[in-house]
Design goal:
The protein is mainly alpha-helical. It has 15 helices and no strands.
Length: 279
């Protein structure tokens, strides 16, 4: 996305906000409020595969439980670093603990011992993207499936990487391909919506994100992305309603205050892109 387009989008959002006396830019969690949510990782923590951990169960683990599971998997991985199932499970836990570089290292070692394991390649590519190593991620993800046997999760991750590399058109082709395989999948629709928002197509982004949020499998992070795009259009009442579904009143107020602070800052759109990359 060009600097000119970013500035034009920012100017439009601020203008709309002033007309409505409402802020026009919502970015949940960018100001690191303790009670706020954050943009969901667009690369995913990995599908439920052999040896993997159900992402929903992983998300529900307490910090103590995460540490315990991490220690157990670290020991198993040290004994058998070529065990792809253990490596993928361990990397999932590490990413959940925000130890992204270590997750990459674990999967890199396993990949060196399992060059033909496409599920492992997909997990490795997503971990690279999650760590901000987009060029490497692009190369690894391209080897994680084949045109004859495409994986919608890998396609979605490829789309997110293409977005971060500045190729929105290519990114959206990946999302369309993923949705052809998994129609209505909320994580793909959420990625697609954010891509459209970054390309300045806010109304289209809202449509995708409303579809995603309406899906029974949609989680809190998908709804936060919808609140983001609603805020970008100055629809603060709608954004507040979406946030209130998952957050306590004090947390909703904190997020709305963060929105009001951000809209006054000249680098709001760069913060949006960085937050999207950081997950």
């Amino acid at each position: 996305m060009t600097t000119t387009r970013i500035r034009a989008m920012h100017a439009k959002a601020v203008s709309n906000a002033r007309l409505r006396r409402l802020p026009g830019l919502a970015l949940v969690g960018v100001l690191a409020l303790a009670t706020a949510g954050c943009l969901s990782s667009r690369f995913g923590s990995g599908p439920t595969t052999t040896g993997g951990i159900d992402p929903a169960r992983l998300e529900a683990l307490s910090e103590n439980d995460l540490r315990s599971v991490s220690e157990t998997l670290a020991q198993r991985n040290a004994r058998d670093p070529g065990n792809a199932a253990v490596a993928m499970a361990y990397a999932q836990v590490l990413r959940r603990m925000d130890q992204r570089a270590q997750a990459v290292a674990v999967l890199q070692q396993a990949s060196m011992r399992n060059a033909d394991d496409r599920a492992l390649a997909g997990a490795y590519g997503r971990a690279l993207a999650d760590a901000g190593r987009f060029q490497e991620a692009q190369e690894v993800l391209a080897r994680a499936h084949s045109p004859q046997n495409p994986d919608w999760r890998v396609l979605s991750a490829q789309g997110a990487v293409a977005d971060q590399l500045g190729d929105a058109v290519r990114a959206q082709r990946f999302y369309e391909a993923a949705l052809n395989i998994a129609p209505g999948e909320p994580t793909v629709l959420s990625n697609y919506g954010l891509s459209l928002a970054l390309a300045g197509k806010l109304a289209d982004a809202e449509v995708k994100l409303r579809q995603a949020a309406a899906h029974p499998a949609a989680d809190q992070r998908v709804r936060q992305n919808l609140a983001l795009v609603l805020g970008l259009q100055g629809k603060m009442d709608d954004a507040e309603t979406v946030l209130a579904r998952d957050l306590a009143p004090a947390a909703v107020d904190a997020n709305l205050d963060a929105i009001r602070t951000m809209v006054a800052q000249p680098n709001s759109w760069e913060r949006l892109r960085r937050a999207d990359a950081d997950g």
